[in-house]
Amino acid sequence: MQIDEEFKLLQKGVSKVVDLCAAPGSWSQYLSRKLRAAESESDVKIVAVDLQAMAPIDGVIQLQGDITKESTATEIVSHFSGDKADIVVCDGAPDVTGLHDMDEYIQAQLVLAALNITTHVLRHGGKFVCFRGKDITLLYSQLKIFFKEVVVSKPRSSRNSSVEAFVVCLEYSPPEGYIPNMSNPLLDHHYDLDFNQLEGVNRVVVPFIACGDLSAYDSDKTYGLQ
Amino acid sequence: MSQYKAICSVQRVTAALLVELAADLSHQYLLLGTGSEVCLYSTESGKWSFECKSDVLHGRVVHGFRKGNGDIIAVFGQKSVTILKLSIEDTKQIKVEVPLIEFPDWILDLVWFSDSSRYAFVTAHNILCIACAFTGSVLEIHRSSINCILYSAKLLYSCNKKVIKSAADVYVAAGTVFNDVIIWNRAQCAESSTPSILHILKGHKGVIFDINIEYDSQLVSSVSDDRTVHIWHYDFPVNGARTWCDAKFQLLSVCHGHTSRVWAAVILDHKTVISIGEDANILVWNVDGSTRKKIKAHKRKNIWCMAVSNNYLVTCGGDMSVKSWELSQLLHAEDSSESIVREQINAVEVKDFPRTVCITGSSCFMMTDQGCLLARHLAQGSKLCVLLTDDRFRGYTVMSSTWAASDKALIALGSAGGVLRLILVSHDLVVEAVNDLDMCTGKVMSVTWLFDANPLSSPLLLVTDTNGEMTLHEIALGASTLSVSLMGRYHLPKSKQRFVTAACLAYGDDLLYLVCADMVGSLHLYVSEERITETTSLATLPTCSLSKTHGKGGLTDIHFFSNYIHTVGRDGFYNKWSIIDSQLVNCSQFKTSKQFDWIAKLIPEGDGNTKLVVFHNTEVLLYDLLAEQVVLRLDCGGGHRSWAFSQAEGCHYFAYIKDKTTNLASKAATLPCTRLVGEHHSGKITDCRMFSMRGRDFLVTSADDGHVIVCEIVNAAFSHVSHEREAVLKTRCSTLVHISNTKCLTLTPSLAGNDDVLVFSGGGRAQLLVSVLTCDADGEVTGAVKSSMNVTKGVSMFRRQSKDDNSEDADVRIMAITSHPLRHYTHLISAACSDGTIKFILYDEGTQLLHLITDFIYEHTHCLLTLDCVPVSSDLTLLISGATDGRIILIDFTQILNSISGNLSKMTTRKKVSNSKSSSNFTLIQPFMQISVHQSGVNAVSAQCYTENTLTICSGGDDNCVAVSSVDLQTKEVTSLKHNHQHSAQITGIQSLTADTFVSVSIDQRLHMWSRPSPSDDKEWGVESSKFVSVADVSTLCCYRDLLVVGGEGLVMFRRSHM
Question: Which residue, A161, B391, B832, B916, is most buried by CB atoms nearer than 10 A?
Answer without folding.
Answer: B832
